[in-house]
Write a structure and sequence with these properties.
3 strands, Serine Threonine Protein Phosphatase 5, Tetratricopeptide repeat, 3-stranded mixed sheet, 30 helices, mainly alpha
Length: 495
């Protein structure tokens, strides 16, 4: 039976109310409530007790019992933090820490970090007042002095984000001039006094956690810690688990694979997932599932060096993807497909051939998917041979032009338009999946690709069309700072 993911920021009180409502509705004989009971209660349809309603709610959300759901929510409550909701008006140490660190709330910026640096420069005494400030400032001397007086400070939760000192060190970005020696010395001092190398928190209660390792590595070169890889190496040596799902996710969007090299050297893909997986049990992806997800991303974005790295480290590239239950939509959309078939269906026949040469079964696509693959690959001869399947292909992948545009496949755009695909159809532009988000022209505008935008306009792209977030292509160009694109689009819009 399919389960439904817990809502964001789920609480025990909220789910108790759901169970109470279900109990009342089932007692009243409401058909929808009884149907839910029939699906999830082992006794089938009946007017459940309150305890039975709690069981139904738990199983509806993928938990075997109310006790297991309650344990899960209590664990979430323990580690939940909302850094983007912190009050920044507090003066002193709280203000410095709030501005000094990555908080992943949409407004992380050098301007915030520069403000923190100015605050500390005008009030250097803050370092002596707070272990958390001393850690964020990587002041090893101040940290050791405080720990000598009270070793328990190494794990003390505090500051505006409710973090341990090691997290403030790992997420601090206010001073790129801090030396590697100071950073590592501070980390060693904390670890020697009992700081947890796997320290972390759940952003708004969502799994996986943001750990100290996540903070050190950042998302890309622009926001990684100044000595992030050295700090990450120290944390891993001290016992941080390399199977860090949030670090993998944050870094997957760029072409830099150094994080994977480092993590593989420290056991990525091995073990049971470490202490965080133990806390959240089967709600956490296994190391194998994490790496299969990384392979999926690398394949659909033609990141060949990363695919090779993953395959060379034993990541399973032969088994078809299958995603029961609450897996991400991106993986569910790939159910039944192998990595080689995903490569072909994303428009990368060379990558599909490489995977086959390494031992994967060659792509076995039906005629409709074969047409889609040929169009994305710019293979006109095969497209012409299979074009009778175009209506079925349009029904299966209505937003395909948007995906082709996101991958800058100009030949594919022309072929797809010739096959009757709507150049104004909305689709996902980050993954090959059907959700009505952006059009191809939005993708071209965001990328600043003048050539592609002109091609799309010639093919009938509507410059006034809006995305799922009510943005026009001109809005996308302006938001991404694409001035030349804005000059092209502005005279064409009705605004």
């Amino acid at each position: 039976m399919p389960s439904v993911s817990l809502p964001d920021d789920a609480s025990l009180e909220q789910l108790r109310k759901q169970a109470r409502d279900l109990f009342n509705l089932a007692q009243a004989g409401v058909p929808g409530a009884l149907a839910l009971v029939a699906e999830y209660h082992p006794k089938g349809i009946h007017a459940v007790s309150l305890t039975g309603a709690q069981l139904v709610v738990a199983r509806h959300h993928g938990f075997p019992s109310w006790a297991r759901l309650k344990q899960h929510l209590e664990m979430i409550e323990r580690y939940r933090r909302a850094p983007d909701e912190v009050d920044e008006t507090a003066a002193g140490a709280g203000e410095f820490l709030a501005y000094a660190c990555l908080r992943h709330g949409g407004d992380d910026s050098p301007q915030r970090w520069e403000r923190a640096a100015r605050l500390l420069a005008t009030a250097p005494e803050l370092v002596a007042e707070s272990i958390h400030v001393a850690a964020a400032a990587a002041d090893e001397g101040a940290v050791r002095a405080k720990l000598a007086a009270d070793p328990g400070l190494a794990s003390r939760v505090g500051g505006p984000y409710g973090w341990e000192p090691l997290l403030y060190l790992a997420f601090a970005r206010h001073d790129p001039g801090i030396s590697e020696e100071a950073t590592l010395g501070t980390a060693r001092a904390l670890l020697e006094h009992g700081a947890d190398p796997n320290a972390g928190y759940l952003w708004h209660g969502l799994y996986p956690p943001y750990t100290a390792l996540t903070g050190a590595l950042g998302s890309h070169a622009e926001d990684e810690h100044p000595h992030g890889f050295a700090l990450a190496g120290l944390l891993l040596t001290a016992g941080a688990d390399a199977n860090d799902g949030q670090a993998l996710y944050n870094r997957q969007f760029g072409d830099d694979d150094r994080h994977l090299v480092l993590l593989f050297a420290h056991g990525l893909g091995l073990g049971n997932g470490g202490p965080w997986a133990a806390r959240f049990g089967d709600r956490a992806d296994s190391p194998r599932e994490m790496l299969r997800g990384q392979l999926w991303w690398a394949v659909v974005h033609d990141m060949r060096a990363r695919v090779r790295l993953l395959v060379d480290h034993g990541v399973d590239f032969r088994t078809p993807y299958s995603a029961p239950g609450g897996r991400p939509m991106s993986l569910r959309a790939s159910d039944g497909l192998t990595a080689a078939e995903l490569a072909a269906l994303s428009g990368y026949p060379e990558l599909a051939s490489w995977l086959a040469a390494r031992g994967a079964a060659p792509p076995a696509l039906d005629e409709v998917n074969s047409l889609i693959a040929a169009a994305l690959a710019g293979d006109r001869d095969t497209v012409m041979r299979l074009r009778k399947y175009a209506p079925a292909a349009r029904e299966r992948r209505p937003g395909l032009v948007a995906w082709a545009a996101s991958r800058r496949k100009l030949d594919a755009i022309v072929l797809l338009a010739d096959l009757g695909f709507d150049v104004n159809a909305r689709g996902r532009t980050d993954i090959p999946a059907e959700q009505e988000w952006f059009t191809a022209l939005h993708a071209a505008a965001a990328a600043g690709d003048i050539e592609m935008a002109r091609l799309l306009l010639r093919l009938g792209a509507d410059p006034d069309i809006r995305s799922a977030w009510d943005a026009t292509p001109l809005d996308s160009a302006r938001r991404h700072g694409r001035q030349a694109m804005a000059v092209l689009l502005e005279p064409l819009t009705g605004a």
